[in-house]
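Batch job 17 of 40 flagged for manual review because the log was empty.
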Amino acid sequence: MKREEIDALVNKYAVMENLTFPGHFQHRYDVVSSKILYSLIREYKPHTYLEFGTSWGGSALVALKALVRNETPYEFVGFELEDELNRETLRNITHWFTTGEARNIHFELWGDITKYSHKIPKEIDFAFIDPNWDKNIAIWTFENIIPRVKKGGIVHIHDWSVTSDLKYEGGGFPGIFYFIELFKEGKIPLEKIFNVWDEEEYKNMSIASSFWKKT
């Protein structure tokens, strides 16, 4: 999708529906990515949503707001390796639920995804991937998550500070290097929807979210 198409989608959903950015607790998921994530979930209406690396729960909250707004059946399964962040995600999502902003949310949260792999849905409509990006977890992700994303499903790869010609500009994560090699070798079945890093404005803000469709 071109920038103009993404902007139109964001205006249709995030802007028109007055998406409130979850700024009442610490997290690192930015406003631009939040609006795109929310709008893609509203547009594609996934039934199974997996988030790998919930951190403090900012992106999870944005996703849940979209899933609830869709008013269609959904399953949200989240994973966060670090115990403290896991508790923070649960606390922040629970706060949103108990303060009356939502009712009847469907939300599961687990720890180390490699130990709770039996909790991963057999078929995934939308996968949000944001691990610590060492090479081993990247290999595990490629082998255990990507195959479960259905054809036409959406994959969000965070920390993708990579140009359209696959030059890694914004970091040094071994796992990102591994994914770059997979793309170069034509082994990863993903077609780009939108990479925030392709936009000079966002690149200067160090925003590194990317969105892909399973082919």
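Reviewer: the log was empty due to a logging misconfiguration, but the result itself is present. The first helix runs from residue 3 to 15. Unflagging and moving on to job 18.
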